[in-house]
Amino acid sequence: MAVVTTIERISKYVDQDVTINGWLFNKRSSGKIQFLQIRDGSGFIQGVVVKSDVSPEVFEKCKTITQESSIMVTGSVRADERAPSGFELTVKDVEIVAIAQEYPISLKEHGTDFLMDHRHLWIRTPKQHAILRIRDEINRAIRDFFHERDFVLVEPPIITPASCEGTTELFEIDYFGQNAYLSQTGQLYAEAAAMAFGKVYSFGPTFRAEKSKTRKHLNEFWMVEPEMAYVDFEGNLKIQEEMIAYIVKRVLENRKMELKTLERNTESLENVKAPFPRITYTDAVKLLQENGFEFEWGDDFGAPHETFIAEQYDKPVFITHFPTKMKAFYMQPDPDNPEVILGADLIAPEGYGEIIGGSQRIHDLELLLHKLEEEKLPKEIYEWYIDLRRYGSVPHSGYGLGLERTVAWLCGIDHIRQTIPFARTLNRVYP
Length: 431
Fold this sequence. Notes:
Elements: E1 3-5, E2 17-29, E3 33-39, E4 44-50, H1 56-64, E5 70-79, E6 87-98, H2 112-117, H3 119-122, H4 126-148, E7 152-153, E8 159-160, E9 172-175, E10 178-182, H5 187-197, E11 199-207, E12 220-229, H6 233-254, H7 256-261, H8 267-270, E13 278-280, H9 281-290, H10 303-310, E14 317-320, E15 333-334, E16 337-341, E17 343-348, E18 353-361, H11 365-374, H12 383-390, E19 396-402, H13 403-411
Parallel strand pairs: 1-2, 4-6, 7-11, 13-14
Antiparallel strand pairs: 2-3, 2-5, 3-4, 5-6, 8-10, 9-10, 11-12, 12-19, 14-17, 15-16, 17-18, 18-19
Helix pairs in contact: 4-6, 4-13
Pfam family, one: tRNA-synt_2
Subunit structure: Homodimer.
EC number: 6.1.1.22
């Protein structure tokens, strides 16, 4: 009896018979031999059908299989250094589950709009499959990192009564006759949970109604947002660099095949070890000015600025102490210079830009009330958040990591729309 297994685990069954339940990705023939490219969701493998080694019925059956037909293939596992996975399957039998109709995505080149319209099928192809397997690895690494350090996972609401960051780029919904919004961050709620559990993180979808068409923006994306009681600015940076180094190490160790499929040069990723370099916002402005950029103190960095700054280092770099007026109301001003905040953005190498934004949070009640008034935010909506400063306030810090930007960086791909199974952008809400 053949063992039913997956392509990912096939190395355990060399010289044994196995059955793979999957689909036909591609097929070619050289007369008396047919080569079946089989996928099963865990990987890809070639099945070799030799006419003299199988029954006439099996050989003829293989001729009828169309691209993406579902099949159950039984054969003997053979090690082969020439194969991308290191193994091939000498086919003994094939059972057809369903013959696919003419498949819309052929192996020729297709335009981006066509592929995004057929995203439900495009994710079956090797490169898209590799990207999403790496996303899964990053996802699991993040959860493992936090749970190994005794963080508690909390789930903030997706429907909120107001902006968490004082912006207007929100998706408004009718919530039983009153205005509500899709959340742009779970941070404020995570702060409340941190006052109950000490160290928490949220991990879920967030929504921003920016009318942006850049390769780094989505309107629905996933954020990882830890919040930590009794952690200051320095402690916040330390946990960020430890987390990034942990994630990169996991991907390099566990997703070698996927990185190879993407033709990702991993040399730069192997440099990603804590600690990371730092540059203050003020020094970054001077650096840009000295190198021909028209940039003034108080301006926000764009992609060219972040890319140039990142190019000065061989690993991710923190830009720290941004102007207070540029950042959200809850960020703690530097006691030594209230014009800047105790916060930082982490910039990824190779032009991938900001992947983390974080800060120490304001813990003083009067200062928080002043900031809300200064930014003309409605105090009544934030009363529950103000309560955190009334009842047992402590210094605390947190940050948010954009999952899709991290996936794009580690995969080395050009556009963020490929980093999520079904992208939501300015002009795309289908499929």
